[in-house]
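Lecture notes, structural biology module. Today: joint structure prediction for complexes of two components.
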Amino acid sequence: MPAMTIPGSERFSSRPVDPDVLIKGLDGILPVHTVTQEQIDDLDPLTYEVIRHRLWSVTNEMGETLKRMSGSPIVTDANDFDFAICDEVGQEVQVGLYNCMLAGAIDLAIYWTLQNRVKNPGVHEGDMFLANDPWVGGGMHQNDVIVFQPIFHDGLLFGWTSAVCHEPDLGGVGLGSFSPSATDVFSEALPTPPIKVVRDFEVQEDVADAWVRRSRVPLLVGLDMRAKVGANTVGRKRLLEVIEIYGADTVKAVMKRMMNDAEGRLRGKLRSLPDGTWSTSGYQDQSHTGDRGVHKIQLKMTKVEDHLTFDFTGTDEQSGVINCTYAGMRGGAMLAIMPMLADDIPWAAGGLMRCFDLVADEGSIVNATYPAAVSRAPIGPAWALGQLVAECLSQMMDRTVEFRDRVQAACCGTFDTAVVAGLDQRGPFPVPFLNIVMDSVAAGYGARPKTDGMDTGGVFPIPMGRLPDVEMTEYLYPLMTVWRREEPDTGGPGRRRGGLSGSAALITYGTDFPVGLVVASAGKGVSQNGGLAGGYPGNTAVGIVARNTGVKDGFAQGKLPFDLASLAGDQELQQCYGETYIAPGDALYLHWQSGGGYGDPLLRDPQLVAHDLAEGKVTLAGASGSYGVVIDDGQVDVAATEALRAEVKQERMSRSTAPARDSGNSYEPGSGKRIDDNLVAVDSGGVDVVACAHCGHELGNPRTGASLNLAFFEGPTALAGPHVTAQPELYVDETVVFRQLCCPSCFTAVYSGVVPSSHVDHVLDLDRYLTV
Amino acid sequence: MAYVIGVDVGGTFTDAVLDDGDGRVVAAKSPSTPPDYSQGVMDAIAQLAENLGEPLDVMLGNTHHIAHGTTSSLNALVMGKVPPVGFLTTFGHRDSIYIMNVEGRYLGSAPHELQDVMGQTKTHLIPKSQAFEIAERIDHAGKVVVGLDEQSVRDSVGALLAQGIRSMAVSLLWSFRNPVHELRVREIIHEMDPDVFVALSHEVSPRIREFARSSTTIMSAQIGPGLRDYLGELEARLADAGLRGPLLVMQSNGGAIAAAEAPATAISTIGSVLTGGVIGAVNLGNQLGHKNIISTDVGGTTFLVGLIVGGEPVRASQTIINHHPINVPTLEVHAIGSGGGAIAWIDRGGNLQVGPRSAQSVPGPACYGAGGLEPTNTDANLVLGILPETGLVGGRKQLDVEAAREAIRTHIAEPLGLSVEDAAAAIYAIQNAQTGDLLRKTVVEAGRDPRDFVLYAFGGAGPAYCAAYAAEVGIREVIVPLGPVASGFSAFGLASSDVVLAQELSDPGLMPVSSEVTQQHFEELERQLGKALERQGLTFSEVHFLREMDLRYTAQLAEVSVTVPSGSLTPADMANAMNEFERKYAGLYGEGTGFSAAGIQSITLRVQATGVLPFEPKMPELDKASGADPCDAQVATRRVCLDSRVGYVDTSIYDYRKLLSGHVITGPAVIEVETTTVVVPPKMTGTVDHLGNLNIVTRG
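The predicted structure, tokenised, for the full assembly:
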């Protein structure tokens, strides 16, 4: 069905603007403070550094304030929030280090406000605006609520501060404002374009009441709204103090220079990376309750000199709840760019965002039009497209020595969501509660050429993410965490192992009633945490409600369950999107995603595998099954390991189809310029060809074709390893396979994935390896 | 009148300062003696007796107490040189210390490290093979849900003992609410082996949130046995030498505790050696009228920075070591780099580097002739003429300038194609620039402008550089505390400390909580503290109890502390506490930001007991000079090089002992003090103040 659009909704779609045009439009309506290039150039280095750190410190203090004042554990304990100081038009000068996807959304709300609110109701000193409209910006789904404030100095609009955080519930038909069966935004929380919640430094109680009235947890939403007002108040006060000391022109010059510096430094990096085009695709398994589709996100990344273009043309149409607006697309790109390319560049995000363009069809998953349902935006499509951006950046960077340590296989591809709500009967009076289960924040990171992925390192889009202590969850809610732990074997096998994920089991504790449960996840049938350079994907996610487990009866006899098998009763497998309940006596089991591996696991140093076994990172079965390493009493059996690895290669050879075209040429192994773990570029009569780094076999020659010639295998997903437990047919209609592409001579894996059978192997594209 | 002695054990030197309560302050210095630091303490104290002119037993017999700051525990933790520790926790939750709330990836990182997500790693306190789960469960209200399976405890403890483990940390879920299982686990461990050191989480850190509580407990178990052995040995040696008063150990919170009490909560002393200098700077700042102070303590091994704002040291309720949270209230002290013993070396790119590796006290700089062959800052200073060949005026050690030149020649000068003199000047310049950069970063990242501060410089290696690094960051005024405390300033701070003990308990509840129950909690904490103060074996001039409640709006992460009156509590006091909380909250975050409708929760109750000691060491006054001209104190003119572009120039050398209050010294000049050397660079002036400090103005 083609995407429906609603006439009149277009005006709420905010897009990046030319700041000069925006300022010109304010001429005579709103006096604005700005500085000249000369003033920027005249800054002395010490003053620049001092003010730059001051601005960082002000931003940081806003974040601390928000965190201290908020009442949502998702803010206080999981750090899903962010904040920014912006210049007069809204360009981000300094963003926080929490949810870095929000950097892609904050400025959009300010641009929109300057275009739509200046004449009526006006933008004045002492105002603060509140918004949660993902099309306007400020956040990626309606639960991201921004409060932002214009800062005036001497009557001129000097800049903006802002604070965004995820609210636990803002109404709509689903718990936590998440309706897994929604097909449009009208089933979700109401999007609210910027409204003036503070006027003349006073919270407008009518507006505040209208705001909190929609929520299932109005007290928390009211507290958070005031927390954001507080954070902005602190930001304004501190910023004005800095202006007081150094003068408005100097401070503004620093702000502009911070963005220019960030832009210049990112462009400098891009120039030192190879030009080229990299394509890839990723998937959302299911789009909403009852759906059994596989939904594709397609990316073509082009890098020319100092500029990147991310073209998502070819992405599937918007569907179910797995869509994001332009803000989500931009935030998704930022989640990869900021940590991977701007790790050592101050996060003056306004400057960084000048270095790339986004292209996408209107009405597609990554650029949804109103009234698509978008509640899953940040943790579904934006995250998923960010993974694709990260993959393309990694493959580009792997070709250089300088950037190789930034290369990373995919991390956990989503936040495995479980919202629980019910009645807390522990106190003198029963009170309703609503909690987003946070255990799945402890996800795995992808492996890198020189290091294993971090075990339970967190979720990649939130650099300062955090997982609440079990005690804090049990104090706040009628829940008990039976276990929370790392799970061995889950890390994607590879020469470098992907970081482990974990599992948790929770029961209700302190309520006699069933507790409502909404689950929303992905990566259950199709992998989202792929490997790189032949590394395998990490584990598929699993969610189960075990009925009538007898856990509490066991307590009385001193019994504590320790794994899924020890939970008695029926085990109900949870689809990617669904609504059910946890009754007293039931248990919720969550097993979230790990990170993908890097390089062929048969190339992993057996001693590292033995160490992993000793530290509980792999099991004995995983060591032999995934790595071909035989360990006896803690020691590597070298001869048996070599024999087993040879056997696995033999098996790969016998099951694979040889490439249609194979030149049979071969080069000296180890010669040529490294492309990645397995591939080298070798000069062959004046033309670069691609050869196997291990055996020297020619794999691709631009004179004879545009793709690599690799041995092809496709089989059941279980062949990907013990950690891929998914039976894809339980989730989606399309056939999902384990696909492996190997060097047809030595059978080292060049690609290993769990993908729909329709997946196009862009990894074969020759032009991603050779600059043409 | 009785004496008070402060002893500060650094990585390189041990300093001792004695205050006789009658206007006299005496100092002594001796090399530290790792791994048995007690020898260095005894050496310094013997030296102190000599400088005082009294036999050791007479001096110690007159000593009211010794306040001690030690670096040994912190060094052991940071260097990972700790004995293996076993960890016992609740079934299903062993991995809490490996998952680390995922924040273990970035805790304690500077801003530029925070955004470098891919540069982060997790480090773990102990391997999984030393962590065991025991079957038991207590709920949030303290109710036993699953009784302790004693057999599972015995099995785990047996396995740990079989690994040769002698120290165990026990941290069970909700133990701070109901310690019954933790207490029983300790009994079982001691039934199996009475000599095993045991740290229980509800005793070390009775706060909600198991990750921080467990990591605090494990680290306490890592340093507890070493601290116990060390302090036991030291107390015995001091008693043998005639000490009748108690030995106190400085804690991270800036107050002291009796040595006998310290090992049980060893982790509270972790900042021991760091805080003495800050307390000393506050004390001296009060005398000089300085409210904003950057205190820089440069010893042989470390460079420590503490900030004092508005007369109060900047504090934190938690500290981070090795990316793990430690629930210990502390004065915030940053270790930012290297001291006088830092080794100069050439990196692979052919660049000259200084530090962070140090020659420490053994083997020490090349010029000490104790086996050190690598060039250090001290060697460079000797070649440059900043240090005299005769050594420090208070020292008895001739310095070997040829050894210093040889070390610089082979390691630096020849590889770089420089003369030995130019290489030494380059080391001096790098040390100044590097220190300036690190200092700027620390102060600026704390959101402060260094230009708003006065800088205090002490420690044996600080005064040779301080004017230069202060100028680098734009600080106008530098105070070098001289006189008897010149290099023993931290020890002076230790001597001026009081005993501060704190006890807290978490009892989360919705406000207004019962005033009766709260009063009972506070009385219990005060009773415990009263007993603990008695156990210190000291006479206090007064004792203060300060009651605090940590309150927050429902479900907030962070609490705001409010004080509660002593004595019996009424519901009105609870209401006042809520009002006080809301008032403070609005003050912190702005009017209208409070939201009492969400409910206010009480999380932690705390009592801080201060046992005020009847001593207030003051720096003695110095006689006034008749004029500003210090020519009578000039003892020599030496060729000194402070800048390779200028080279060696004739430089006035002053003997500090001959300087008087009001003398003004014009740079370039070197002032030789018993235990340190002060450089006044060209175009700067230094004035001797009424307490004998040198006040250097870095620019006009």
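Point to remember: Residues 656-768 of chain A form one domain.
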